[in-house]
Amino acid sequence: MDFLEEIERRRTFGIISHPDAGKTTLTEKLLLYGGAIQEAGAVKSNKIKKGATSDFMEIERQRGISVATSVLAFIYKDKKINILDTPGHKDFAEDTFRTLTAVDSVIVVIDVAKGVETQTEKLVEVCRMRKIPIIVFINKLDREGKDAFDLLDEVEQKLGLKVVPLSFPIGMGYDFKGIYNLWDKKLNIFSGDIKQTVSEGIEFTDVNIPELDEIIGESLANTLREEIELIEEVYPKFDLELYLKSDLQPVFFGSALNNFGVKELLDCFIEIAPPPQPKMSNIRMVDSKEKKFTGFVFKIHANMDPKHRDRLAFVKVVSGIFKRNFNYLHVKQGKKMKFSSPNAFFAEKKEIVDESFPGDIVGLHDTGNFKIGDTLTEGEILEFKGVPSFSPEHFRYVNNADPMKSKQLAKGLDQLMDEGVAQLFTLDLNGRKVIGTVGALQFEVIQYRLEHEYGAKCSYDNLNVHKACWVEPEDAYNDEFKEFKRVKQRYLAKDKKGQLVFLADSAFTVQMTQDKYPSVKLHFVSEFK
Ligand code: G4P
């Protein structure tokens, strides 16, 4: 297979959902189709169980599992499929946002009974901003849930999508009979007994023929006919170009647990989902078909063994072929590096590989050289854009609780921040350190990991901050900016890259500040240029 064919056959995507909608179950069923696993139950759920806030074993367990399931790859109908795992827990949302910088498309899972939930709204918003093509899978059709048309409306309104159903349920819950697949015009009849087996589906190009009544009964057949007519009137026709531009989102219905509607989803996915896409760098667009290797780090995972403090940096290959033992330029550090044991991921295993293609994820062992967002190239000085930090939601002062271990604390904090566990700000006024996180859980994770991996102890003090706003002065020398800096001195800090940040204590303060100093722009993301 030549280079271009290798690119063309790759599909790198993420599955996103609110916790419990069925992401893990769907992932597992997809792997079953790829023959990557033999039985259900092989993919462990990576979610943190409810109420586990102070259960550190649970956090460690989660970390262990999430290394194993970070990337799940399999081959299906000759396509190489890479699923990038995204944590469902809201406290790890930033991890998910970063992973979305490395996917070429996503599948959104929605629970038929719960409809669109908060976490899904946030994640889909990021996908829309980034114009990532989306397929929606409405799950748990074997249970009583919302009316299918109401749900489609809800998806459009709450997620701001333009949907086109490519399959439609026949009945629901107790009366769930099957699915009519509008994509390839097939009827799949549900039987409670066929769990985990693949049903081929009956060819049914025309729902108006009388045989349909014999199979699903007259009443359901008539309802289905009316519904299909309505779909054809109300919803647009599927248009590949619009889907790829993220202007149209196909919807599938099914039950992941019962393996129903999953094959239809997968068969359509491999046909329509995009192969590795070009990516913007600070100087130019890089096309996946370019011969020279480029890639970027989107995730760093600390090793589970505290004695060997090495980490695994996950690199998405953007262009060219990544080769083992080849010299690559770490652009930010201006340093050549080569990697003797790059890992590739397959099902739930990882193994050393000689070559990886665009769309693939390579795991590189790292002793502290990488930060999230770092770019590797064959020598060209360019950096990929788009791994921004979002404003944290929770802020606390961090104090050294063991004066003998200040070096360890500094190193530990530094490395945990590189991993993206949280963000560190240093106050201009007195040099005090502030940690900002997406969820309260991370403070405990940090404290625990500092102690167990770095032998350092920390304590926290409360701090009233609403949002971190990255400051962009129109003119760094004008009087307005000087005045802003003088008045807000107590609330100004630097982030890890040395960018100026205003720690605002309320939404009102943000508004007031913006009104008073209009030439000083405030941003809630670190990457605004
Ligand atoms: P998540 O990764 O999105 O958090 O969800 P996960 O797949 O873990 O699924 C959450 C729960 O929903 C699980 O039940 C799972 O079995 C169930 N589920 C998933 N798909 C379907 C479906 O199509 N129909 C029905 N009825 N249930 C479904 P659980 O009891 O929380 O966990 P478990 O003990 O079954 O693992």
Helical segment tally? 14
Q: What does the largest sheet look like?
A: 8 strands, antiparallel
Q: How many domains comprise the coordinates?
A: 3
Bound molecules: guanosine-5',3'-tetraphosphate
CATH C-level class of the largest domain: Alpha Beta
CATH superfamily grouping of the largest domain: P-loop containing nucleotide triphosphate hydrolases
Query: Got a strand count?
Result: 31
CATH topology of the largest domain: Rossmann fold
Please give the radius of gyration in angstroms. 25 Å
Your description of this structure?
The protein has 529 residues and is an alpha+beta fold. The chain has three domains: 3-272, P-loop containing nucleotide triphosphate hydrolases (Rossmann fold); 279-377, P-loop containing nucleotide triphosphate hydrolases (Rossmann fold, 3-Layer(aba) Sandwich), CATH 3.40.50; 394-523, Peptide chain release factor 3, domain III (Alpha-Beta Plaits, 2-Layer Sandwich). The protein contains 14 helices and 31 strands. The protein has an eight-stranded antiparallel β-sheet with strand order 27-24-26-25-29-30-28-31. Strand 25 and strand 26 (433-437) form a beta hairpin. Helix 11 (406-419) packs across helix 12 (441-454). The longest helix is centred in the middle third of the chain and has 17 residues, at 218-234. The two termini are 40 Å apart. The model is unreliable at 48-54 and 194-198 (pLDDT under 50). It binds guanosine-5',3'-tetraphosphate. Guanosine-5',3'-tetraphosphate binds next to helix 2.
